[in-house]
Design brief:
By secondary structure, the chain is an alpha+beta fold. The chain is built from nine helices and eight strands. It is elongated.
Amino acid sequence: MINVWRITLVLILSSCLVISGSNSWSKPASNEDTVLSPTELTPKDNVEAELIALCLSGKLVAPDSLYEQVLSDLAAIRSTFGNDFEPINRITFVPPWRAGGLIIGFDDTTAQKVANGEYQAWDELNKKYQVSKINTRPISFIGTSELYFEGRLHPRRLAELYAGLPGIRYTEPNGRIGDSPNIYPRQTEDGITYLFRDAWGDCPSGCIYSEYWYFVFEENQPILIGHWAPHEDPQEPDWWDEAKQNIEQFHEW
């Protein structure tokens, strides 16, 4: 009778061990199974709002929440003040660089490898961040290549990612040339402020004339702080010291 009890107990314990052991081999839950890669979050539907959110955040990809906030802000400004100030409807945001555009400078040996199609050190990054085009035409005379990406990615973050590759002398955003009408947004403790600038007169060399509208938000409503046309009145308004910080920040991106 005792032996039967012992045999039964051993069988029960063995079954428990088998079940426990089989569970230990099951795949653990992982966030990687559900988290989207950065390139799946761009491009977004509205180019202007995405570019502004990209600049304000400084991240590789524009955050969804900031994108939605900018989209709402711009719609509110234009619907409230667009009838009185027509330029606000047509002025759009232009960043100081091309989103998803990167310039890479190589040392002489590596430049030759790139020219011959033999440079493979960047293949993994190119695939991960979805390079759509590589321009190697400048490689023969200035030792650089231009990379263009599918999504609207922050070029300074891309520059950081590519800077550590072998044979690279420098990485930098693909910048823009000339001047144009623009929107200068700035993130503050109280929200985002927007300085709209209309501009004209030899803009490829730097627009001669400008006209400004400065907006802040109070309780989610746009407030026009001031309107100024320097070519009509050279005296700076009281609010200009605050508003020009938007332009200063723009040139730091």
